[in-house]
């Protein structure tokens, strides 16, 4: 896992996100990209030259980071890549509070990393989600 230093790596992140969210989960393509991609911190997991996982984080307030667009290529799931992405992005940001909108089927995964669900379920791109939070002291 590494922070994305340039446009070629960002293109790999976006390609992987499209494969997971648009092609696999049916998120409308026009909802997958947004203006935050230009300023967000992106991380990329590689196997050789192949992008196998990605995530991004946006600083919402000093020390408060919103993590999103966590995606792992289907053949690489359940191999620890998602956990590596999350730990890596937390380390890169050195935040004190982390927020994310978790797809409800992934809540258990995030709970194993110290996140707790808050508030009611909501729909994002037609997919049920819940807000999750982790304070740095929960590491």
Q: What is the secondary structure topology, with strand pairs?
A:
Blueprint (H helix, E strand, L loop, with lengths): L1 E2 L3 H18 L4 H4 L8 E7 L2 E12 L2 E9 L8 H13 L3 E7 L3 H5 L4 E9 L2 E9 L4
Parallel strand pairs: 4-5
Antiparallel strand pairs: 1-2, 2-3, 3-4, 5-7, 6-7
Structure explained in plain terms:
This protein is of the alpha+beta class and 139 residues long. The chain has four helices and seven strands; from the N terminus they run E-H-H-E-E-E-H-E-H-E-E. The longest helix has 18 residues, at 7-24. It is globular, with a radius of gyration of 14 Å. The relative contact order is 0.15.
A few lines on this structure:
The chain is an alpha+beta fold and 139 residues long.
């Amino acid at each position: 896992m590494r922070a994305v230093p340039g446009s070629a790596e960002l293109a790999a992140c976006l390609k992987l996100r499209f494969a997971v969210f648009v092609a696999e989960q049916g998120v409308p393509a026009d909802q997958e990209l947004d203006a935050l991609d230009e300023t967000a911190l992106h991380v990329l997991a590689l196997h050789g030259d192949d992008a196998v996982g990605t995530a991004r984080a946006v600083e919402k307030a000093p020390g408060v980071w919103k993590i999103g667009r966590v995606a792992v290529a289907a053949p690489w799931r359940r191999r620890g890549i998602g956990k590596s992405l999350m730990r890596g992005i937390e380390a890169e940001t050195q935040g004190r509070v982390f927020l994310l909108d978790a797809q409800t089927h992934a809540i258990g995964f995030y709970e194993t990393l110290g996140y707790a669900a808050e508030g009611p379920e909501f729909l994002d791109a037609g997919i049920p989600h819940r807000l999750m939070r982790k304070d740095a002291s929960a590491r």
